[in-house]
UniProtKB/TrEMBL annotation:
InterPro entries: Elong-fact-P_C, NA-bd_OB-fold, Rib_uL2_dom2, Transl_elong_fac_P/YeiP, Transl_elong_KOW-like, Transl_elong_P/YeiP_cen, Transl_elong_P/YeiP_CS, Transl_elongation_fac_P. Residues 67-122 form the Translation elongation factor P/YeiP central domain. This is Elongation factor P. It is found in: Cytoplasm. Keywords: Cytoplasm, Elongation factor, Protein biosynthesis. GO terms for molecular function: translation elongation factor activity. GO terms for biological process: peptide biosynthetic process. Belongs to the elongation factor P family. Pathway: Protein biosynthesis; polypeptide chain elongation. Residues 130-185 form the Elongation factor P C-terminal domain.
Amino acid sequence: MASTSDIRNGLCIKHNHDIYKIIEFLHVKPGKGPAFVRTKLKSLTNGKVLDNTFSAGHKIDVVRVETHTFQFLYSEGADFYFMNTESFEQITLNKDVLDAPDLLKEGTNVMIQINTETDLPLSVDMPASIILEVTYTEPGVKGNTATNATKPAKVETGASVNVPLFINEGDKIKIDTASGAYMERVKE
């Protein structure tokens, strides 16, 4: 058992008969009354995000997890296949467990947290950004750059991303995996 002073981002806990990962927290000490911790919890079984407040000193049940590096091999329907880079053991995960499955390119390394009690994967942490090649986009219209205008572009994984007008087919772009937004053009 741990207490609220042990709360940190990425910590996995048992709460309301489910396993949650803490994605945000804030310790609050009001002028009047006891301190408390505001948290944003993400369910690792169904992906729902829940706001919860723990009073200071509240006991929390921590789930022990191990983090391993896995390489994305390929997808088949809703199943995504990963290989442990150390033991070469393969696992299959459902598309629903992944935050941005449409941005996963074959060969990409991800961090997978595994529950040590049950040996089941809990969550997949994508890299902060990923570089993908634009396979299709409409050509930009000359003189249409007065505002921050964007156009849709399809990348090599099949995902659609809004990009600036100067991006052309064949360009490599960096995409933020958390929001799925264009970050910058990458020069070779």
